[in-house]
Amino acid sequence: MTKYRLLTSFLFAFPLAMQAQQKGPVESVTVTTENTRTGVYTNDKGELQVNVVPGDVRKYKAAGVVHYGDFGARGDGKTDDVDAIAATHAFANMHGLPVKANDGATYYMGGKERTVVIQTDTDFGKAAFIIDDGEVENRNASVFTVSSGLKPFKLETITSLKRNQKKIEASLPGPCLITVTNSNVKQYIRFGLNQNNGSSQTDIFVVDKNGRVDMKAPIIWDFDQITDITALPIDEKPLKITGGRFTTIANRAESKYTYYNRNIAIRRSNVLVEGIEHRITGEGDHGAPYGGFINIGDCSYVTVKNAVLTGHKTYSTIGTAGKPVTMGTYDLLANRALNVSFVNCSQTNDINDNTYWGILGSNFCKNLLYDHCTLSRFDAHQGVANATIRNSTLGHMGINAIGSGLLLIENSTIRGRSIVNLRPDYGSTWQGEVVIRNCVFVPMNGKPANASLVSGSYSGQHDFGYTCYMPEKITIENLRIDDAAHPENYQGPAIFANFNPEMTDGAYQEKYPYVKTKSVVMRNVTTASGKAVRVSDNAFMFKDVKVNGDGK
User: Fold this and answer.
1) Residue 3's pLDDT is what?
2) What's the whole-number mean pLDDT along residues 148-158?
3) Separation of alpha carbons 185 and 224, rounded Å
4) C-alpha–C-alpha distance, residues 220 and 467, integer Å
5) What is the dihedral of CA 408, 414, 416, 421, to 10 degrees?
6) All residues at 6 or more sequence positions from 81 whose CB lies less than 8 Å from its CB, including other chains
7) pTM for the model
């Protein structure tokens, strides 16, 4: 009897600022010459064991595809099929075979801690999957993890890095994703109801086999010291996941920050997820938040296309400041990920219904894209370097971002409180440019509002761990502001909200000075109210901003 052991890769759970690391269960695939049937078993340690007779190995390889039914999945919507599904993928991963679900099946997946590891093309097709979170053994264990067979390794010889550095000196097997940390420096020191002591200085970038950095996603920090630097080889062959109608039966846990990561975790570069659907049922008057049904991390070149997703119901808890706070809960989450695109994605619930939280959260990302999406929110918590929203409609939570580079918004309709909200809890900082082109802005989805195009708040009294910037230049072209429904005494839309009502003259001193916008260029900006666009209610704070062009 020949025995092959297949180890699952590390699983990562990202409740936004925090990162937990877990080992998945060991899976063993046994090819036996004994007169037994192919079957799936668990040993006394709870490990999955798969016996496959040689005749079946030859049959599956000749067919060029493996089905869940081949390993005992019932697909009746009642029997827990998670072991059979995990076994199918374990065998497929070993032999490099694609996996296909049965279109008419409904696969029930209960709360057992059993992560299904996907390393080959997978077609969920028209099959339905029920993920029951009523009783979960480990809320941090993903249901599926898309992983690489390539292994990360340390780069011990690199001791420092510079912002915009073009090359690293390292011996590499091919293109790699580089993740670097300096735990002695804290950044993103959060302010407000969810205040915290910050995150270790982090960067992530791609290099080719010669160590040349992809400057479309450049190094954004100076690292005077490095406490950890890891290279993960990038799979150059694309992996494709298609179809699937997933329904999560929501947890009923206490409403506190115990994130559920019962999801599809993508931890491999060069992945396309197309045609997936995710719905949620069973949400009551309380529950723990979710860390993204599609959870993308530690990877690059990932596209989610033609997806139908669902916003999660918002629950409240007591934040770190000791006061009530609504909890972020996500169907899409991206952390430490580069070149991530969401194309033609929509959601099942109303994008303007504020009983549901905004659908996306992200941290430490570069080059995020929405294209032809209709979603309730775009959001970058702990920084994004370069983001594009185009041909899209954003709902009640709008566009929230801090970061650097170019924030491009074009051919889109924004129905939030502002076009861009620079998140106050992270310093309302954007070190770069903002371009708004060929857009329609409907303040608060048409409710009476004192409209502002760029919102945020900055007192100058809190240390966020970095210098905070407003966009150096803001360009606004061909913008229609639908402000027909406005309050009495409305003075017209402002370019900037009142970022600091206390800064009314030169007597106010910022302990941590804010680098203000230098110029705003406006061309063909019109309003339904007929009122001209103003700079801000706070004329003093923005007195040095140069505004060029028309605004009427």
Assistant:
1) 32
2) 95
3) 10
4) 13
5) 10
6) 68, 73, 74, 75, 107, 108, 109
7) 0.94
